[in-house]
Structure formats: C-alpha cells, structure tokens
Specification:
Number of strands: 0
Structural class: mainly alpha
Oligomer: single chain
Number of helices: 5
Distance between the termini: 70 Å
Length: 190
C-alpha cells in the first residue's frame, strides 16, 4: 500500500518547518500542493477500483444466490420423483454455492472496510490540501504586501525625495547672503 505510506509522509511533514528551511517558500508550497494533488488522484483511483471490485463481487454473489435457488429447486424436483441420489447431489452443489457466497460476503466486507478507509484518507487529504492552499494564498498576500510596501518606500525615499534633501542641505551650506534666511533643518523639509 504505497499510497498510504506516501500519504502518511505528506501528513507527517511539518509544512512550517519546511517553509522556514526552504529558499523559496512559494515554490515549496507549490511542490507540496502538487504532491498532495497527485496522491489524492491516486487514492481516488484506488477507491474507484475498490468500488468496481465490490460491484463485481455483488453481481457474482447474486449469481451464486440464484444458483443456490436453482439447486434447491432441482433437489426438490428429484425428491418429488423419488430420486434421493440426485437430490443429495443437488444439495451438495447448493452447499458449494453457499460456501462460495459466504467467502464472497467476507471479501465484500473487507472491500467495504477498505473503502471506508479510503474515504477517510480522502477527507483528510482534502483538508490538508485546503490548508496548504490557504497557506499559499497567505504567502502570496504577504509577498504582494511586501512588494507594495517596497514600492511605497521607494516613492517616499526615492530619488525625488533624495534630490529635495540634497537641495535643502546645499541651500543651508551656502554662506548666508544679505537678507537670506536659512531653511529650517530636521524632519522632512518638504
């Protein structure tokens, strides 16, 4: 069951730790999400195979039930004609069909239990996938916010502001001319 071990590995991974250690957290989250989506597809495919196997076994079980009814009717017919040897043979065949049906019922129960396990795994994996996508969206929002702050800082502290500060400093450094008043210094002179 490589799917389960792979799923367990994904669940066991501490995403925060992985993101902290990775050089590109966005890329790491994308890789985790892709891996989870691939695993989800594999688990769903296994569940679909399990459902198909269960349906096929139920059809075989119905055929065995019909076969048992047929052998019972044949045994009754043989008894009505006083052919106990044929009736015993028919009952033996009916018992063989009943034994096979019992085995199929046991296999169907195993398949049903396996299918319930797949359903639980799919639900857990979908939850983890939603969580990873939420982290991806939060990371994208943080990145966008950082870009916006960087652009705002560039505008506030960019070349034009720097030029204005330089001009202010230059004006204060010149010797005072007759009647000139020095510009106030400190703060944002603009």
């Amino acid at each position: 069951m490589g799917i389960f071990s792979r799923t367990r590995d994904i669940f066991a991974a501490n995403m925060t730790e992985l993101l902290d250690r990775s050089e590109d957290p966005a890329k790491m989250i994308r890789m985790i999400i892709l891996e989870m989506e691939e695993t989800l597809v594999e688990v769903r495919a296994s569940a679909a195979r399990c459902i198909a196997d269960g349906k096929e076994m139920r059809r075989a079980l119905n055929r065995l039930d019909e076969l048992q009814r047929s052998w019972t009717e044949k045994a009754e017919l043989a008894l009505s004609k006083d052919r106990e040897d044929l009736a015993k043979a028919a009952l033996t065949e009916r018992q063989k069909a009943a034994d096979m049906a019992e085995g199929l019922n046991a296999e169907i129960n195993v398949i049903d239990d396996t299918l319930k396990g797949y359903e639980g795994d799919i639900a857990k994996l979908q939850g983890k996938l939603r969580e990873a996508r939420a982290r991806q969206n939060a990371l994208a929002a943080r990145f966008e916010s950082a870009v916006t702050r960087a652009k705002a800082r560039e505008i506030m502290n960019g070349n034009r502001t720097e030029d204005a500060r330089w001009l202010h400093q230059r004006a204060n450094d010149r010797p005072l001319r007759r009647g000139a008043v020095p510009l106030p210094s400190g703060g944002n002179g603009l």
